[in-house]
Amino acid sequence: LKAGAFRPFGVEMRFGEDGDAVILAGMGGETMVSILSAALWTRRGVLLILAPQTKQAELRRYLTGNGFAIDSECLVRDGGRLYPLLTARGGEGRALTDGELYTGQFSLISEDPLFGEYLAALLRRAEDAAPYDPSAQKRAEEFRDMERRLGKCPR
User: Fold this and answer.
1) Least enclosed by CB within 10 Å: which of 15, 67, 77, 126?
2) How far is the C-alpha of 50 from the C-alpha of 47, rounded, in Å?
3) How do the pLDDT tens digits run along the chain, 155 residues long?
4) pTM to 2 decimals?
5) Half-sphere exposure of 132 (CA within 13 A, CB side)
6) How many whole angstroms separate alpha carbon 140 and alpha carbon 132?
């Protein structure tokens, strides 16, 4: 892979000339969405390596709704917290359920050794918010279903 640097808040590279991959890390998903929406050339086959610290659901919603396919997902632990790391490319992506916007695509992430812990934390947050937020209640139900499915997955 060829690498290059760019200024924050703008991917001002020329695809195919400056590099064939873009790494966005150390920022929230909403900032990544702003950068990617201003760099339409990233939909033409460039490899995106994304490590959002916050607003992961917002990033996944943008990717799957705007011409990107999520290829892989895994979890990393940093400073006692779990963060998703995902790769994506331009192309037809699979639609994600509401819960998968938060967890990542179940078929891609479910075998990650940290996924059970990550899912349990998301479930706790959704259950805490459920009395005040009907969408959180729905997410909690989907997370519980994922936990059941996870228990049936060979590890």
Assistant:
1) 77
2) 10
3) 455 555 554 545 554 556 788 999 999 999 999 999 998 888 888 999 999 999 999 999 999 999 999 999 999 999 999 999 999 999 888 899 999 999 999 999 999 999 999 999 999 999 999 999 999 999 999 999 999 998 865 54
4) 0.87
5) 4
6) 13
- Token representation of residue 107: 């078929």
DSSP assigned state of 16:
T
Instruction: Please report, for residues 2, 22, 69, 112, 124, the alpha-carbon distance to residue 103 in angstroms, rounded to integers and kept in the order given.
Output: 31, 23, 16, 12, 13
Contact 40, 33 (CB under 8 A): no
List alpha helices for the chain, DSSP H.
29-38, 56-65, 98-103, 106-109, 115-129, 134-152
How many Å apart are CA 109 and CA 100, to the nearest integer?
10
Give CA angle at 59 (54, 60), nearest 5°: 120
User: Assign residue 48 a region: left if phi > 0, alpha if psi is -120 to 50, beta otherwise?
Assistant: beta
Number of C-beta neighbours around residue 142 at 10 A: 19
